[in-house]
Amino acid sequence: MKVTGAMVRTSRVNTGGYGQIATLDVVVIDNLAGKLLVAEAVTLHITDAKAIMLNRDELILDPTSATYDADIAEPTAVATLADGGLQVYPNPSNGSFVSVSGDQIQQAVLLDVVGQTIRTYAANSGQLDVSGLPAGNYTLRVQTANGLYSGQLVIIQ
Questions:
Q1: What is the Cα–Cα distance from 88 to 128, expressed in whole angstroms?
Q2: What secondary structure does DSSP assign to 34-88, as a single string?
Q3: How many CB atoms lie within 10 A of CB 150?
Q4: Domains of the chain, CATH where assigned
Q5: C-alpha dist (Å) from residue 32 to 43, 66, 116
Q6: What is the end-to-end Cα distance of the chain in Å, rounded?
Q7: Using an 8 Å Cβ cutoff, are 100 and 126 in contact?
Q8: Alpha-carbon dihedral of residues 78, 144, 146, 154, nearest 10 degrees?
Q9: How far apart are CA 124 and CA 80, in angstroms?
């Protein structure tokens, strides 16, 4: 993975000395199911680092590599719709309405395959309007008083 970045001091005032000038957070979204929960070393190689003064004079930097331990936390899981006693029908849907039966719904969210929210449904919506959505696979997350449940919804045309 390559990260390219630039920083500019908005005050337009040169400064000297030592100290932190930036932080870098790297988040890797991956399916970690089944991977061991052990810390692994992560090495960051910083190259082509440059600092330029306001008068465009370049400062010599000595970028170094740094090794950090990755913090791999216990993976969390969302219970399935069936775990919550919820049923979605028809599934696959022809693209008009989907009914959710079971506990009182506080909120339902429909996500596409990349996890972006497509639609949000209000509390106690037993009927979810899926009209106008293209055919495909979606994730349905339903929040009830008893928890958050997730399942797949297929829309066909």
A1: 10
A2: T------EEEE---S--EE-TTSPEEP-----EEEE---PPPP--EETGGGT-EE
A3: 17
A4: 79-155 (2.60.40.3080)
A5: 20, 24, 20
A6: 39
A7: yes
A8: -40
A9: 19
- pLDDT by position in tens, the chain (length 157): 666 666 666 666 666 666 666 666 666 555 555 555 555 666 667 777 777 777 888 877 776 655 565 555 554 556 777 777 888 888 888 877 778 777 788 888 999 888 889 999 887 667 888 888 888 899 988 888 888 888 888 888 7
Tell how strand 136-144 and strand 66-69 pair up.
unpaired
Distance between CA atoms of residues 123 and 44, nearest Å: 46
Distant-in-sequence, close-in-space partners of 150: CB < 8 Å, separation ≥ 6: 78, 79, 80, 81, 139, 140, 141, 142
Strands 147-155 and 79-80: parallel
Alpha-carbon separation of residue 129 from 82, 87, 110, 134, 157 (angstroms):
21, 16, 10, 13, 15
- What backbone torsions phi and psi does residue 83 show, to the nearest 5 degrees? -60, -35
In angstroms, the CA 9 to CA 114 distance is 35
